[in-house]
Design a protein that fits this description.
Rossmann fold, 6 strands, 2 domains, six-stranded parallel β-sheet, globular, about 200 residues, single chain, Arc Repressor Mutant, subunit A, about 55% helix, alpha/beta
């Protein structure tokens, strides 16, 4: 049996995925979480073979969850199922050790097949996205990404500094670096472009 944990913040999608996978003879859904931190706790408690997660979730994103799994060397494969058809997201997912990356508009049977493939040690990636992922590199560092994401959410330099444990000057430097690397005029344009490319 392939033991699966789901992490998806939309209740309807979470229920549909759980029901769909529950129809498969060789797949057992151990649980379903609505946000990243509870998924992290359940991962350690249930020890599934595969985590199926969305990217955007409250608290801890699917990518951050994958990075944490990689850092702690947990023996669990990660498959991302998302609406984000952005090459930048796929590159970051692969860097975080993700084994599968599927789009939510893919045929339902593709997911079960992807889980089997990943469980056997293979990779399951959306082919068109995989091609595009290597056409343009993400220029942002992890810290620049963190600072830019918070700035894009409307936080001031002082608030960002407080949250990340940095000085306001350092925050401004990171923002300036990100704006320069992306070749835009200000932090809002930088945030929009980085989101569009899948770098945030």
């Amino acid at each position: 049996m392939i033991r699966v944990l789901l992490a998806e913040d939309q209740a309807l999608v979470r229920g549909a995925l759980s029901a769909l996978l529950g129809l498969e003879q060789d797949i057992e859904v151990l649980g379903a979480c609505a946000e990243g931190e509870s998924a992290w706790r359940e991962l350690q408690r249930l020890r599934p073979d595969v985590l199926v997660t969305d990217i955007e979730m409250p608290g801890l994103t699917g990518l951050e969850l994958a990075q944490r799994i990689q850092r702690h060397e947990l023996p669990v494969k990660v498959v991302i199922v998302t609406t984000f058809a952005r090459p930048g997201f796929l590159r970051r997912a692969l860097d975080a050790g993700v084994s599968g990356y599927l789009l939510k508009d893919a045929p339902a049977e593709d997911l079960a097949e992807a889980l089997r493939k990943v469980h056997r040690g293979g990779r399951a990636l959306d082919p068109q996205l995989a091609l595009e992922a290597w056409s343009e590199a993400d220029p942002l560092s992890d810290r620049e990404r963190q600072v830019l994401r918070l700035a894009g959410e409307g936080r001031s330099a002082a608030e960002i500094a407080g949250q990340l444990g940095l000085s306001q000057g350092t925050v401004r430097n990171y923002l300036s670096e990100a704006i320069g690397k992306l070749g835009v005029g200000n932090r809002i344009e930088a945030y929009r472009l980085a989101r569009q490319k899948g770098w945030l």
